[in-house]
Amino acid sequence: MSTTSPDEINAMSPAMRRIFSVLAAVERIGNKLPHPFWLFWILSGVLAVASAVMAAANVSVTLPGTDETQRVQNLLSLDGLTYALDSALENFAGFPPLPVVVTVLMGVAVAERSGLTEAVLRATIVRLPARWVTFAVAFAGTVAHVTFDAAFVILIPMAALAFKAAGRNPVIGVVTAYVSISAGYNASPLVTPSDAIIGSLTTSAAQIVDPNYVVTPTASYFWNAASSVLVAVVVTVMIEFVLNRRPEAESDELADGEPMDLTLSSRDRRAMWQALAVGAAMLAVAFAITLPPGSPLRGESGTLSESIILLNMAVVVSLLFATMGFVYGRQTGSIASLGDLPGLMAEGVRLIAPIVVLFFSISQFLAYFSWTGIGSVVAVDGAALLERLDAPTLVILAILVVVVSAVNLMVTSGSAMWSLIAPVVVPMLMYVDISPEVAQTVYRIGDSCTNAVTPMSAYFILALGYMQQYRRSAGIGTLASYTLPIALVLLVVWTLFFALWYAAGIPLGPGVPVR
């Protein structure tokens, strides 16, 4: 699919030209920002000054559900400077995305370098009609949430390859995968680890009012499954009918090069099926030893959501891809022996070296943000604002979506933010006959959409790194100019979808009424 020609631009409606003009301006302005590595150090400086001012003004909040007072701490004080130096290595080494990205990529690199990834793409997604590729990738993004944060590392590069193989722009593939995973983070046709984490936090908050209240991981299953289709449709429509027509939508390579040769030799096809069979067998064994009640792999509580396999999905995924890649490589001759694997893994990790450098600066900034306590102040005060409003139910819920979306630009960890505001929001809504499950559902709409926009997300930086492999001039503004319109449209459409769902009285999940 070609980018928009000058004649096509002239034939566009004035409204469409204005939209493209705004997006181009967003890209230009965003790309004038400093390199992300330095941007986060600049933000750290701004944060330090803000913390000094707020600490001098004795700004504080009482954490909901406790008697603990959280005061803003001065990052420019002796304690703050000591913390910054003492914790630097720990902040970096303990940065959650770092081990996930490196671990998963080692396994994925074996599958990719062996040729398995390309073979699977040839046999599946790139055989779809061109426009179905976008929907397939977008829907795959919602399904991939079952692998938790590993979804970003697996799907984004594969989506770029899928688009490139189909003769389409790989930059658009990166955007499609990233925005479907991040903006649709809380929508999936499968029960995900995030469902268990958020549900447990909601349970704790609900028990402030009702000590026996329990929110299960499947509480919003019907809603989540329907939302996954909605997210995929919105992303597809925005990509195909708006963003793919942008004059700037090109990569450094020809966006419309010759499609990849889809022919698989009998040897390659046989090797692919053998590799997939081994992968299926590994998954079958994992399920067989985890699903039975009483299985020691379910964790101390005996629940599936706390099984060691789900909690360590990055390692499982890496082993799965590495094993399948090795089987394929041995059959096709691309891998001679086990001795080849470390080199293949190193090649994969080498590609993300620039991203690892960025992770150092972003990990320090996020650690400083947490230490100062400013994040707690923003979250708790935002929830308190909702409490003071006297408005109809749907209006309150819509305001909650907007507030959460705004706060999410700064506090990017969904579970961290919910742990702060749930003890206020959930009891408050329970007192006006709005269930904890509804509060949780509305929160997750707001928490999802702006994930794709904020450069404070480590995975925004990861996606930018993959985008730069195909468009070297891409910067923060480039990625934001693609994700911003999708996030805004999805926020509106998803909120309206919930309003219709609520009005129709459709259950959120098994045995969970919406009102």
Automatic annotation (TrEMBL):
Supply the alphabetized keyword list.
Answer: Membrane, Transmembrane, Transmembrane helix
A Pfam match: ABG_transport
Q: In its keyword annotation, does this UniProt entry include Membrane?
A: yes
Q: Name one GO biological process term.
A: p-aminobenzoyl-glutamate transmembrane transport
The molecular function terms of the Gene Ontology recorded here are:
secondary active p-aminobenzoyl-glutamate transmembrane transporter activity
Q: For this UniProt entry, which segments traverse the membrane?
A: 37-57, 92-111, 132-160, 221-243, 271-289, 309-328, 349-371, 391-409, 416-432, 452-467, 479-504
Q: In its UniProt entry, what is this protein called? A: p-aminobenzoyl-glutamate transporter
